[in-house]
């Protein structure tokens, strides 16, 4: 697990008050709802200094910590950016 995935997993576990792993789908597990999705997008934007555009709002990109990691890497254009930040 890289640093970014670990940080996202820690945020998710704290925010959801439930231990989640990097591949756990917290929506499918019933731990998250649409209001949490807004909180999650706000966290991603603030922590990784990026803007989540309307066209980025595909739930599939935000269902697990690993998917969020890939989304952030795509938006920043570089896996190295993520690991060295």
UniProtKB/TrEMBL annotation:
SUPFAM superfamilies: ACP-like (SSF47336). Gene3D superfamilies: ACP-like. InterPro entries: ACP-like_sf, PP-bd_ACP. Pfam families: PP-binding. Residues 1-76 form the Carrier domain. Transmembrane segments: none annotated. This is Acyl carrier protein. The lineage of its organism: Bacteria, Bacillati, Actinomycetota, Actinomycetes, Kitasatosporales.
């Amino acid at each position: 697990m890289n640093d970014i995935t670990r940080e996202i997993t820690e945020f998710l576990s704290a925010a959801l008050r439930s231990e989640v792993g990097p591949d756990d789908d917290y929506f499918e597990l019933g731990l998250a709802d649409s209001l949490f999705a807004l909180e999650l997008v706000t966290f991603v934007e603030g922590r990784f200094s990026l803007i989540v555009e309307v066209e980025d709002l595909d739930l599939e990109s935000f269902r697990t910590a690993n998917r969020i990691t890939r989304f952030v890497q795509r938006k920043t254009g570089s896996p190295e950016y993520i690991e060295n930040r």
